[in-house]
Amino acid sequence: MLITFKRVLKFAWKDFSRNRANNFAAIFVLVIPILLATALLVFQGVSTSVVSQIKEKIDVTAYFKSGATEDDVLNVKTELLKLSSEIKEVQYVSKEKALQDFTERHKDNPDFLNALEEVGGNPFLASLNIKTEAPLQYEKVTSFLTAGPFSQFIEKVDYSQKKDTIEKIFSITSSINKFGFALGAVLFLIAILVVLNTIKLAVDSSREEITAMRLVGASNWFIRGPFIIQGAICGFAALLICMVISGLAAYFLSSAVAVLVSGFNLFGYFISNFWTILLIQIIFGVVLGALASFILVRTYLKI
Amino acid sequence: MISFKNVTKIYPPNTVVLDNISFEIKTGEFVSIVGKSGAGKTTLIRLLLGLEEPTSGEITFRESNVLHTKRQQLQELRQKMGVVYQDYKLLTNKTVHENIAYVMAVIGEEDEKIDREVREILEITGLSEKANNFPNELSGGEQQRLAVARAIVNQPDVVIADEPTGNLDPYNSYEVVALLKKIHDNGNTVILATHDKEIINKLGERVITLDDGRIIRDDLEGKFIL
Fold it and tell me: Whose CA is closest to A127, among A105, A107, A101, A161?
């Protein structure tokens, strides 16, 4: 058994080094699906980051009438937190804090400060800033505030103004996601067909050899073993190429991507997902190469 | 050792290649199968190797029914037959040495034994100088000798040669037949399919004559009569 395995490895390596042209073609063709699979993973990472950033920015602000006391506001805050476990955070912003924030934000802009002075006093309202786990919860929060027992204290809830924008952004993101994956899947399928075809050419050129091996009494595994290992070697070589390409691309494109998707560090993502990327590249390189050889050699073993 | 019992082979729709053939070959015999081109010699060998199935009849090799043998066992049967094919069927991606070593590796021989016996057989067949060449770098005669070397290296139960001299000049033909004779003298069974009259007449061994898919003669010390 061991001696057979050793021989299969030896044959595989010899055949690999003798069929350089075919194998180089196979390696470079295998690079395509591996890179595509890696790109899809990165694309998914980018879109997840975009969605979570949007989610992070979405909130509902309830402004309280000027007559509402701090106790009333805090009471509403307590009730809100009881409303649903999906309410992530409720932040109380008092009238004074709102004024302070505004002044701080516009300290370099005298126009705003002048306008504030002209109005006189503190024109801001106390507010509660609410964040939930899922965007759908905002609807519930809004109706609780506007139609519930505390509606008398509420001046306005700004969700309805943001609603359209929020829904639009989510629909665009999910469309881009769907389109990206559909396009990726199609390209991927094409890439696999090209891989199968290239390896088929390599196996076809050994068709007579395979027949001759069957005729001298070689077992199926003794014949197909070297082909499978050659496929795996090609896949492994393609994997190394892809690792270098994707690593360099992540490194050099990192700053450009950070401009497009603020806060997304491409190279950091590459490093932190290194093992996942490596696993995907192994599956689409080594496994695909070996599997394609296995399937294609089988056709010629039927004598 | 080998028996064909009422074997018929018909290719669709109705081309009869072998018509109710029956014969037996005993261990240690040298049997020539002769006939014109298309008489059914190659089909007969293909049936024996399990490369094709007969339309009817039974073929046994060492008590195993070739027709009802599973793939794995069929491969084991093939290991016991050394075959020289009309078109050589050499492993084009392997060197002369590796071509011969391959059939020994198939049956799991040790590396030292493979190396020693391959060298011996290369010596016998006069291919030592070409050990590291690939088949396409050999002449027709050398390829033929390589095919013979590969067929006999495992000392199989039977050596089957299908038109081994078909593409050779008289000198090379004589060499190949002499090699087969030597194998036979060592006690091996040899089956030689040919349409070369001179070779058969010189051998003076058993001759089965095929014509239009039927056996028309089976002589123990036969001549080429057609």
Answer: A101
Whether A160 shows a pLDDT value over 70: the answer reads no
How high is the pLDDT of residue B146?
Answer: 92
Q: Is residue B52 within 8 Å of residue B9, measured between CB atoms?
A: yes
For chain A, percent of residues with pLDDT exceeding 90: 11
Q: Count CB pairs under 8 A between chains A and B.
A: 56
Q: In B91-210, where does DSSP find H-type helix?
A: 96-106, 111-124, 140-152, 170-185, 197-203
Question: How many domains does chain B fold into?
Answer: 1
* pLDDT at residue A213, as a whole number: 92
Chain A residues closer than 8 Å to B110 by CB: 3
**Among candidate residues B54, B84, B77, the one with its CA nearest the CA of residue B192:** B84
Tokens of B154: 């495992």
From the list B75, B85, B92, which residue is nearest A217 (CB)?
Answer: B75
Chain B residues in contact with A7 by the CB 8 A cut-off are 105
Instruction: Measure CA B156 to chain center.
Output: 11
**Chain B partners of A1 at a C-beta cutoff of 8 Å?**
none
CATH class of A59-134: alpha beta
Tell me the residue range of the domain where B113 lies: 92-155
User: Cα B170 vs. chain centroid, distance in angstroms?
Assistant: 19
Q: Are the beta carbons of B103 and A217 separated by less than 8 Å?
A: yes
Residues of A with CB under 8 A from a CB of B: 3-4, 7, 14-15, 18-19, 206, 208-209, 211-220, 222, 303
Q: Which residues of B touch A220 (CB under 8 A)?
A: 71
Q: Residue B138 in contact with residue B147, Cβ under 8 Å?
A: no
The answer to whether residues B83 and B66 touch, using CB atoms and an 8 Å cutoff, is no
> What tokens does A100 get?
């302070």
Residue B196 lies in a domain: no
For A107, counting Cβ atoms within 10 Å of its Cβ (0-12 exposed, 13-18 middle, 19+ buried), the class is exposed
Answer whether residue B123 is part of any domain.
Answer: yes
Secondary structure class of B68 (helix, strand, coil):
coil
Q: B171-224 pLDDT, tens per residue? A: 778 888 888 888 898 888 999 998 888 888 888 889 999 998 899 988 887 777
Indicate the range of A20-29, A242-251, B21-30, B108-117 predicted with least confidence: A20-29
**Is B89–A217 a contact, with Cβ atoms under 8 angstroms apart?**
no
Domain boundaries, given as residue ranges, for chain A = 2-54+169-301, 59-134
